[in-house]
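Recap slide: Zinc finger CHCC-type domain-containing protein, sequence and predicted structure.
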Amino acid sequence: MNSLTQMQARALTRPAPVTREVATTRIACDGLTENAALGHPRVWLTIPADSDFIDCPYCDARYIRAPGAAEGH
């Protein structure tokens, strides 16, 4: 296994830095900071129907669908 493949494998198994349980499948993430200037651009994420979570592409926060979560917002 080359070093790039090993690094990719480790990256995929690392836990998310922040995990939040949400009651809806559509979430806005802006970096999870109290000061908007320190976060990232707001992105809207939708938890896929075939998954229980989605990761933010900017900050890697993981949003987990709560049991019985409503579709949409």
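The chain has a mean pLDDT of 81.
The chain has one domain: 16-70.
(End of recap.)
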